[in-house]
Task: structure prediction
Amino acid sequence: MAKELNPYQIALTQIAGLGPKSIRQLMGLCDGPERLFAMSHAQLKEIFPRHPGIVSSIESKSTLRQAENEIPNLKKYGIETVFYTEDDYPQRLNEVGCEDTPILLYRMGSCTLNPHHSIALVGSRKCTDYGRSVTFRLVKELAADKPVIVSGLAYGIDTAAHTAAVENGLPTIAVLGHGLDTIYPNQNRPLARRILEQGGALVTEYPLGTDIQPAFFPARNRIVAALSDATVVVESAERGGGLITANIANGYHREVFAVPGRLDDPGSEGCNNLIVNNKAIMLRNAGDLYFQMGWKYAMAKARQKEQQQELFASLKGDEQKVVNLLHDNREMTLDEMSQKCDLSLPKIASILMELELKKVIRCLPGRIYKLS
Result:
């Protein structure tokens, strides 16, 4: 069942002169946006004694009518709104304690905004083949923990991060610097569709019809940083959006990682400077991130599974038959396996010993066997 859109929440964020900080203070005084729009002129003047424009906007309900007119278009695009007091609002944004995090988000797609783990991958729009390759390798390695990959759908590293995520079966969140009725850059329209088809999401703080303005893109970087447990800068020159995101993430006390580049490569100067100035941890592979974030268990578990798959691939004949049997039945005795596999007890005992040595199976009390 689709979530009901609330015009009062939308209208509140469109009142000229009211920013996120003011709205949070205001909501502390009244019980929700509906209550605000029901206040009398005298009450509004008491709250906003020096802001007649705000009083007039609320009293006339002009933004409320505008929001009500916007709702059919939001439904047309399949867009939901998420208010900062609601459970599905990204709690990581509330946790950073920043006064300018958005009051309302517009979301298209099914991906939760409160995933178990989330990682921002950012960097240069003019990335090299090296940066692209590193991004794909990192996402593939990180896939074991099933994190949500967060980025900004821009050219370069952002595009590589989202593409790598969908190709590795990971949900990914693209944070946009404009309304959800358009995609910028236009070339990433097919990628945006793939993100949605694979359970990802497109997110923005801007309403439909918002003009694309350069200033909005650095602003959206604070959402990228706040949505993520860690920010990874893959490739960046001395200046760039990736460094803005890294600095914001540092301000939010989130871990920042940077992939080192060649000393003589201007395209990696930003990453190298982050590392040298202790503003980022040097990242060589996903293992570095897992270790710093305390996610070692997931990586060890993934490696164990990988080793197990390698072992399974090397099994032959009767060994594979026994493993398949245990896979289907979880636990079995030696006698049960002998009957099912039509092998003698000595033969089964010999196979089981080999599989135990290879750590493919375990022997439980009572001579019961199961896969490791």
In short: The two ends are 42 Å apart (CA to CA). The chain has a mean pLDDT of 88. Residues 7-77 form one domain. The chain has three domains: 7-77, 109-297, 315-371.
